[in-house]
Amino acid sequence: MSSPASTPDPLTHALQQIRGLIEAGQLQPAAQALNAAQKQAPLDARVPLVGMRLAQRAGNLAGATQAARRALALAPGWHVAQIELALLLAQQKQGEEAVQLAMQALAGAPKDAQVMVGAINVAHLSGQSEQAVAWAEDGVRRFPEVAGIRLFLARLLVALGRPSDAQVHYEYMHSRVPEHEETLRGLLSCAVRAGDNDKAAQWAEQLLTLKPDDALVQYWHAITHGQMPTTQPPEVVTSIFDDYAPSFDLHLVRGLKYQTPKVVADALLACFPDRKFNLLDLGCGTGLVGVYLGRIDGHIIGVDLSEKMIEQAARHGIYSRFHHINVLDALRETPADHYEAITCTDVLVYVGDLTPVIPNALRILKAGGHFIFSCELATEDEADLVLRPSQRYAHKASAVERLCREAGFVDVQIEHLPTLRMENNQPLPGFIVTARKPAAAV
Ligand SMILES: C[S@@+](CC[C@H](N)C(=O)[O-])C[C@H]1O[C@@H](n2cnc3c(N)ncnc32)[C@H](O)[C@@H]1O
User: Fold this and answer.
1) What does the pLDDT profile of the chain (442 residues) look like in tens digits?
2) Which of 203, 227, 251 represents a domain boundary (last residue)?
3) Using CA atoms, how far apart are residues 203 and 188, in angstroms rounded to an integer?
4) C-alpha of residue 254 to centroid of ligand 1, in Å
5) Which domain holds residue 173?
6) Phi/psi at 145 (nearest 5 deg)?
7) Kind and range of the H or E run holding 368
8) Distance 366 CA to ligand 1 centre (A)
9) Are 420 and 432 in contact (CB under 8 A)?
10) Which CB contacts under 8 angstroms, 24+ apart, belong to 386-392?
11) Best of 231, 232, 305 to mutate for ligand 1, by most ligand atoms within 8 A of CB?
12) CATH of the domain at 45
């Protein structure tokens, strides 16, 4: 028999069991047991916190938030409740309150690495990248051996375009665990971003030995060995955008002056001034095209490979449906003559080769329908398709125009934009294509 000192009190034991039920997905018995615990200890803040987990697991974000607030009301200043509530608020775009709570939790529990991880996450989810980096840097100083914090910091730095700062942390990790997969991937991405192909090839080689069947690794291996894949595998896309989703709008629109979805939405409304059309938004991301369009008299269907980007888009309540698939599959599988309009903003830079895209877009448009998309610019003395060091594809405008006309589009118009958005403090040039499917013969 264990000693009384090592036996948890009955309530602690009951709450541990309820947590186990929640983790196993047995929500009904968990709810019953929680009700009993609530009656037994109505003023114990741990009870609503387990209630929060239950609501979270049931997908009830509002209920989870209410439960976390109750826990905090019962135990003001309890850092666990503060950070849990902060995480929930950050997910619901209530960043200001979330970050305030995270600060309080950090002040109250400066030696708790879990609170530090939570706070970094809160800032990241709230789109406050600089705060997330500041906390992660502080976390690395305070908890140098907690790999999770160091890797989080390195990922944030890569996402913020600071590969050489990230590399220092990946190298530290590599010196401790030489075959750690995420570290090798990080080192590879830093070398790629820094334009150091020899190093990148070396990391890709090591990764391929560890993960010979991994599409992402194969892709990087090909690139670093001088080949140009004609499209990015889905794993590359999701690895970028699942991480980027929470801060995408703030970082891109405010930080990098990204205006393409607005330009595309305006072009679309010029084609359909009565707002009567059904739209397929390929690579919808966080739904900015829908946001700039506002309500239309028709459906907007979003397609995206990143579930996290779709989650952000769904919040606007403007899209009727989403398909979590590759745009190439959506284009291939959608029946003919289906939509009045298709948009694809800042997506073909990841798709690359347009030969399967443009004819299928024509096929699935209704007669007279419009395809509007954006590309990054390859100059006329470059190849038709170029993979930039940013790992995005640039297209030559004349080649894109030719593909559209050859597929059967008419009124193909190219609008050159000197600045699609900023990149490394420089304007990134591109163009918007508007193409129309011919009206049906009468
Ligand atoms: C830069 S974001 C642009 C999002 C949105 N169109 C906008 O302009 O705000 C690119 C989006 O395309 C998605 N994407 C890239 N390649 C894709 C593919 N092959 N299939 C589906 N989605 C893709 C990414 O997940 C991401 O959400």
Assistant:
1) 333 445 678 899 999 999 999 999 999 999 999 999 999 999 999 999 999 999 999 999 999 999 999 999 999 999 999 999 999 999 988 999 999 999 999 999 999 999 999 999 999 999 899 999 999 999 999 999 999 999 999 999 998 889 999 999 999 999 999 999 999 999 998 998 888 999 999 999 999 999 999 988 999 999 999 899 999 999 889 988 887 887 777 777 776 778 899 999 999 999 999 999 999 999 999 999 999 999 999 999 999 999 999 999 999 999 999 999 999 999 999 999 999 999 999 999 999 999 999 999 999 999 999 999 999 999 999 999 999 878 899 999 999 999 999 999 999 999 999 998 888 788 999 999 999 999 976 5
2) 227
3) 5
4) 18
5) 163-227
6) -95, 5
7) strand 365-378
8) 23
9) no
10) 387/223, 387/228, 387/229, 387/352, 389/192, 389/193, 389/195, 390/423, 391/192, 391/223, 391/232, 391/236, 392/349, 392/350
11) 305
12) 1.25.40.10
User: What is the three-class DSSP state of 413?
Assistant: strand
The pTM for the full model equals 0.70
Task: Say which residues have a Cβ less than 8 Å from residue 347's Cβ, sequence separation at least 6.
Answer: 282, 283, 285, 327, 373
Coil/strand/helix, residue 5: helix
Assigned domain for 194 exists: yes
Residues with CB under 6 A from ligand 1: 237, 241, 260-261, 283-285, 288-289, 303-306, 309, 326-328, 345-347, 350-351
Tokens of 424: 């490394």
Q: Answer yes or no: do 187 and 92 share one domain.
A: no
Please tell me the distance between residue 339's alpha carbon and the centre of ligand 1 in angstroms.
19
Closest CA to 160 of 193, 203, 195: 193
Distance 96 CA to ligand 1 centre (A): 28
What is the Cα–Cα distance from 11 to 2, expressed in whole angstroms? Answer: 18
Task: Please tell me the residue having the least CA distance from ligand 1 atom 4.
Answer: 285
User: 167 with 123, same domain?
Assistant: no
Could you tell me if 257 and 222 lie in one domain? no
Query: How far is the C-alpha of 321 from the C-alpha of 262, rounded, in Å?
Result: 21
